[in-house]
Automatic annotation (TrEMBL):
UniProt keyword terms in alphabetical order: Cell projection, Cilium, Coiled coil, Cytoplasm, Cytoskeleton, Flagellum, Ubl conjugation
GO cellular component: axoneme; microtubule cytoskeleton; nucleus; sperm flagellum
One family name in Pfam for this protein: Tektin
GO BP, sorted A to Z: cilium assembly; flagellated sperm motility
Family affiliation: Belongs to the tektin family.
Cell compartments where the protein resides: Cytoplasm, Cytoskeleton, Cilium axoneme; Cytoplasm, Cytoskeleton, Flagellum axoneme
Chain coiled-coil ranges: 114-141, 308-342, 378-415
Function of the protein: Microtubule inner protein (MIP) part of the dynein-decorated doublet microtubules (DMTs) in cilia and flagellar axoneme. Forms filamentous polymers in the walls of ciliary and flagellar microtubules. Required for normal sperm mobility.
Chain spans, region Disordered: 71-103
Protein name: Tektin
C-alpha cells in the first residue's frame, strides 16, 4: 500500500508520559517525509494527519499513471486474444487435415504388414520331425556319459584311500579331475542343447499362433483406423472424450510397433533356419564331445601307466635303501659294542691311577713331595678322563645314529607298504575299471 493511501481513523492516544524539559539541541529545517510526519514542527506525545501540497500532487499523478498503464495492458491483451483465436482456428484445421493424412498412411503400412504376416503363417512345420530325431540322439548321448562319469568319480574315490605320503595331487588326479569336469561340462552342454531343441520345437509350433495373433490385431486396428479416416466436423458419431488424450503406459511407439511385427516376421524366417542350423550344431557337438571324451580317457590311461612306473621305480629304490640301511644298522650295532668295551677297558687304569694318587697323598711330612711321579700320575688321570669323555661322546653319537637308522628303517618299510598299496589301487582298482569305458559310437548317440 502506498504511503498516500494511509489516513488516521481515530484520535491520537492520550499522553501517558509526564512532560519534562528536553535538552537544548540545534535543528535544521524539518522536512515532511510521509503521511505520519508533522508539518515540520516539533511534537511531543502526538502526531498530525495532514499532508503537504507536494504530497497531494504526487498522489494525483500516481493515479493518472496507473490508469494509463491499465488501459495499455488491456488493449495489448485484446489484440493478443484476437490474434490467438485466428491462429488456433488455422491450427485446428491444419492439424485435423494432417492427422487424417497420417491415419491414411498408417492404413497403408498396416495393410503391408498384414500381407507379410499372412505369408509367414504356414512356413514353420517341416523341420520339427527332423529336430525331434536329433533330440532323441542327444538324450542317448547324455545317458552314455553317466558311465564315464561314474568311472572317473570312482577312480578319484579309490585314490583317496592312498596313504601318506602318496596321497598327493599328482598329474593322474589332475587328469581325472579334468575328465570329471569335462564330463560335467559335456552333460551340461547336452542338457542345454536338449533344452534348446525342445525350445526350438516349441517355437516352431508356437510362432504360427504368434503371427496369426499379430495378424488378427492388425486386422482390427486396420478397421478402426479406416473408420477414423471417415470422421469429420459434421459427423454425428463423434463425441466428447476428455480423457482420450491420456496415453496408456503399455502403449507402443511407432518404432516399437514396427519392431514387434518385424521381429515376428524375422523370427518366422529365422526359426526355419535355426532348426536346420541346430541340427547341424547337434551333429558337431556330438562328434566333438565323443572325440574329447575318448582323448581324455586316453590321457588318463597314459597318466596311470606313467604313475605306476614311477611308483614301481620308487618302491625298488626304497627296497634298495632299506637293504643298505639294515646293513648299516648291523655295522653300527657292532660299533656301539666296541665303544662300550673300550670305555670299560679304560675304567681299570683310571682306578689304578686314582688309587696311586690317593695313597701317595698320605706320605708323611716332607715326603709329601710333588715329584715327577706325582705329576705323571696326575697327567695320567687327566688323559684317561679325556679319553673316557671322548669315548662316551662317540658312544652317544653312535647310539643316536643307530636310533636314526632304526627310524629310517621303519620309515622305509612303511613307505614301501604305502607304495604297494598305491600300486594296487591304481592298477587293480582304477585301471581295471576303466576298461569298461563306452565306445565313440555310444558317446555320439548312435547306439
Amino acid at each position: 500500500m502506498a504511503q498516500t493511501d494511509v489516513l488516521l481513523t481515530k484520535q491520537p492516544a492520550p499522553q501517558t508520559i509526564e512532560p519534562c524539559a528536553l535538552p537544548h539541541k540545534e535543528h535544521d529545517m524539518a522536512c515532511n517525509t510521509g503521511a505520519y510526519t508533522s508539518s515540520g514542527l516539533a511534537t511531543a506525545g502526538f502526531r498530525t494527519a495532514k499532508y503537504l501540497m507536494d504530497e497531494w500532487f504526487q498522489n494525483s499523478h500516481g493515479q493518472y499513471h496507473q490508469a494509463i498503464m491499465d488501459r495499455t495492458h488491456s488493449e495489448r491483451q485484446r489484440q493478443e486474444s484476437q490474434q490467438m483465436a485466428a491462429e488456433t482456428e488455422a491450427l485446428a484445421q491444419r492439424t485435423q487435415k494432417d492427422s487424417t493424412r497420417k491415419t491414411g498412411e498408417r492404413l497403408e503400412v498396416t495393410h503391408c504388414w498384414k500381407a507379410e504376416l499372412r505369408r509367414e503363417v504356414n512356413e514353420l512345420v517341416a523341420e520339427t520331425d527332423l529336430l525331434l530325431a536329433q533330440k532323441q540322439r542327444l538324450e542317448r548321448a547324455l545317458d552314455a556319459t553317466s558311465l564315464p562319469f561314474s568311472i572317473a568319480t570312482d577312480n578319484l574315490q579309490c585314490r583317496e584311500r592312498r596313504q601318506h605320503p602318496d596321497l598327493v595331487r599328482d598329474y593322474v588326479e589332475m587328469e581325472l579331475l579334468k575328465e570329471a569336469e569335462l564330463i560335467r561340462n559335456i552333460q551340461e552342454l547336452l542338457k542345454r542343447t536338449i533344452l534348446q531343441a525342445v525350445n526350438q520345437i516349441r517355437l516352431n509350433r508356437e510362432h504360427k499362433e504368434t503371427c496369426e495373433m499379430d495378424w488378427s490385431d492388425k486386422v482390427e486396428a486396420y478397421n478402426i483406423d479406416e473408420m477414423c479416416t471417415h470422421y469429420h466436423n459434421q459427423s454425428t458419431e463423434v463425441q466428447v472424450h476428455p480423457h482420450s488424450i491420456r496415453m496408456e503406459e503399455s502403449a507402443s511407439t511407432p518404432e516399437t510397433w514396427a519392431k514387434f511385427t518385424k521381429g515376428n516376421l524375422i523370427r518366422a524366417e529365422r526359426e526355419r533356419l535355426a532348426s536346420d542350423n541346430l541340427r547341424t550344431l547337434i551333429d558337431c557337438i556330438l562328434r566333438d564331445t565323443a572325440e574329447d571324451l575318448r582323448l581324455q580317457c586316453d590321457a588318463v590311461n597314459l597318466a596311470f601307466a606313467r604313475r605306476c612306473e614311477e611308483l614301481e621305480d620308487a618302491r625298488h629304490k626304497l627296497q634298495y635303501h632299506l637293504q643298505k640301511t639294515l646293513q648299516e644298522i648291523t655295522d653300527q650295532e657292532h660299533q656301539v659294542a666296541l665303544l662300550k668295551r673300550a670305555i670299560k677297558d679304560k675304567e681299570a687304569p683310571l682306578r689304578v691311577a686314582q688309587t696311586r694318587l690317593y695313597q701317595r697323598s698320605h706320605r708323611p711330612n716332607v715326603e709329601l713331595c710333588r715329584d715327577a711321579a706325582q705329576f705323571r700320575l696326575m697327567s695320567e688321570v687327566e688323559e684317561l678322563n679325556m679319553s673316557l669323555t671322548a669315548l662316551r661322546d662317540k658312544l652317544q653319537d653312535a647310539e643316536q645314529a643307530l636310533h636314526n637308522l632304526e627310524d629310517t628303517r621303519m620309515t622305509l618299510e612303511k613307505d614301501i607298504a604305502v607304495k604297494a598299496n598305491s600300486l594296487f589301487i591304481d592298477r587293480q582298482k582304477c585301471m581295471t575299471h576303466r576298461n569298461h569305458y563306452p565306445t565313440v559310437l555310444q558317446l555320439a548317440g548312435y547306439q
